[in-house]
């Protein structure tokens, strides 16, 4: 298991540099209306944050961009609220199996050792539809001071 995890983490670091090319500071964030569904369907799972969340890397590069790497556990039967990323990112599955929902794309299932791309400005969610916890690592390169995601699910958006 250690070898597989080491291989995944090495891949994470290798592909994080690819995110650098897609990280362009924006003066205006894309405006997205609150939503209840992805691809015209309600999503399965109870909305919950990650358990055992740990920041592995949170640093500012020489060019001022923030590198953020977070590991967490998605418990069985839970999902992240529908959200968007203002800057693309990657998620790598360390163990378990996660179902990814992205507007305009087919639902995809990813297992241990798989990584998937999270495009900017696309409504998305991910759910653990299995019986075992899923350990994930999220990687973002984004402007300093910006958050990696914005919740857009109806009824969950904080009033500002």
CATH class: Mainly Beta
Count the DSSP helices.
Answer: 1
Count of distinct structural domains? 1
Parts with pLDDT < 50 across at least 5 consecutive residues: 20-28
Distance between the termini: 44 Å
Largest sheet: 5 strands, antiparallel
Instruction: Provide the CATH topology.
Output: Jelly Rolls
* Secondary-structure content class: mainly beta
Task: Determine the CATH superfamily.
Answer: Jelly Rolls
Strand arrangement, major sheet:
2-3-11-6-9
Order of helices and strands: HEEEEEEEEEEEE
Determine the strand fraction and express it as a percent band.
35-45%
Number of strands: 12
Mean pLDDT: 86
Helix content: 10-25%
Q: Which radius of gyration do the C-alpha atoms yield?
A: 15 Å
Question: What attributes characterize this protein structure?
Answer:
mainly beta; 1 helix; globular; five-stranded antiparallel β-sheet; 13% helix; Jelly Rolls
Give a description of the structure:
With 160 residues, the chain is mainly beta. The protein has a single domain, classed as Sandwich (Jelly Rolls). The chain has one helix and twelve strands. The protein has one helix spanning 2-22; strands at residues 46-47, 51-60, 65-74, 78-79, 83-84, 89-95, 97-102, 108-111, 115-118, 124-127, 134-143, 150-151. The strands form four sheets. The chain has a five-stranded antiparallel β-sheet, covered by helices on one side. It has a three-stranded antiparallel β-sheet with strand order 8-7-10, with no helix packed on it. A two-stranded parallel ribbon has the order 1-4. β2 (51-60) and β3 form a beta hairpin. The radius of gyration is 15 Å and the shape is globular. Residues 20-28 have low confidence and may be disordered.
